[in-house]
Write a structure and sequence with these properties.
Elements lengths: L2 H9 L6 E3 L7 E7 L2 E8 L2 H10 L12 E6 L4 E6 L4 E2 L5 H19 L9 E5 L2 E4 L2 H6 L12 H7 L5 H11 L10 E3 L8 E4 L2 E5 L6 E3 L2 H10 L11 H11 L7 H23 L2 H16 L1
Antiparallel strand pairs: 1-2, 2-3, 3-5, 4-5, 6-10, 7-8, 7-12, 9-12, 10-11
């Protein structure tokens, strides 16, 4: 049974009740209407992503709006999750002026993430059921592309055979390792995928933070590093210095953030390495080359 047939049968939907939505990297996504309300249905082989979304929805607030998971269940081919559809356009589609108007709300969302109490949880890095995969944050950084089975297998062999090869990867890894000792052993919730169509905005505010499957426990600056790393992918933002904007915000709230340059360099290199590995796994050779070039630019900078 197809996913659309599953939804029609389970919820008694007519042909005009369903509409397409942007798919995820690991999920198929459908929208549907029932009783005058719009919902999102996602289908995946990996239930843990949906469980993480449900867990994080406990921390939803005005500053950090996270859609609640209404239902998680099993299908013949995997799992599905139903949530209420949130309104807004994608952060990724904003022009420079729009991004600058959203930044105060964006920083407030990151502040709310940083304030989440993790005292009942353990470990660092990728997590399930409140337990991090690694003992420390530095161990997390040094364990590059620490993927679940089936979500990255064979990436190194693919990279070796790729036109780019392993040279840039190894150079970036060596530079990153030299910076790990500068990174503090602190634990906060990191989304780690705030770009890639996972943040909705409306009326110059964050209206939803979606898809917590990549989230980690570690240094909150990692989410800033993602903005810094991926800025060349968004030419409309070329004149926005995200690191400087973030520091100005932290200064305004009295938050002291030491060794920012070293931490951001380490994290942008880690993001580059993870991206090279994942793109090689997916055999997206152009993305491998782009990420490798960016890695070397950061390593040599």
């Amino acid at each position: 049974m197809s996913e659309s047939d599953f939804l029609r049968e389970r919820y008694g939907l007519g042909p005009d009740d369903m509409f397409p939505l942007r798919p995820g990297e690991w999920s198929k996504v459908f929208g549907f209407r029932k009783g005058g309300v719009e919902y999102v249905a996602r289908f995946s082989k990996y239930r843990e992503d949906f469980d993480k979304d449900a867990h994080m929805a406990r921390y939803s607030s005005a500053a950090l709006p996270i859609p609640p998971i209404i239902e998680i269940g099993e299908t013949a081919d995997g799992y599905y999750a139903i949530s209420k559809r949130m309104t807004g356009g994608y952060l990724d589609d904003l022009d420079a002026d729009g991004m600058r108007r959203v930044l105060p709300s964006f920083w407030a969302a990151l502040d709310a993430m940083r304030d989440i109490d993790l005292s009942a949880h353990t470990g660092c890095g990728g997590w399930n059921d409140g337990r991090g995969r690694r003992a420390t944050w530095r161990d997390t950084l040094l364990t590059v592309h620490d993927h679940d089975p089936g979500r990255g297998d064979g990436w190194r062999e693919a990279l070796i055979r790729s036109p780019t090869g392993t040279g840039p990867y190894e150079a970036a890894l060596e530079r990153m390792r030299s910076l790990v000792d500068r990174c503090p052993e602190i634990r906060h919730v990191i989304h780690d995928d705030l770009l890639h169509f996972n943040v909705l905005v409306a009326h110059d505010r964050v209206s939803a933070v979606l898809d917590w499957g990549s989230s980690k426990y570690g240094d909150f600056l990692y989410d800033i590093a993602n903005l810094v790393f991926y800025k060349p992918w968004f030419p409309q933002w070329r004149n926005i210095d995200f690191a400087a904007e973030a520091l100005a915000h932290y200064d305004s709230i009295g938050l002291v953030v030491p060794q920012v340059a070293e931490r951001l360099k380490c994290y942008t290199l880690r993001i580059a390495l993870d991206g090279i590995a994942y793109s090689a796994f997916r055999k997206r050779w152009n993305e491998v080359e782009l990420r490798a070039r960016r890695a070397l630019e950061i390593a040599r900078g």
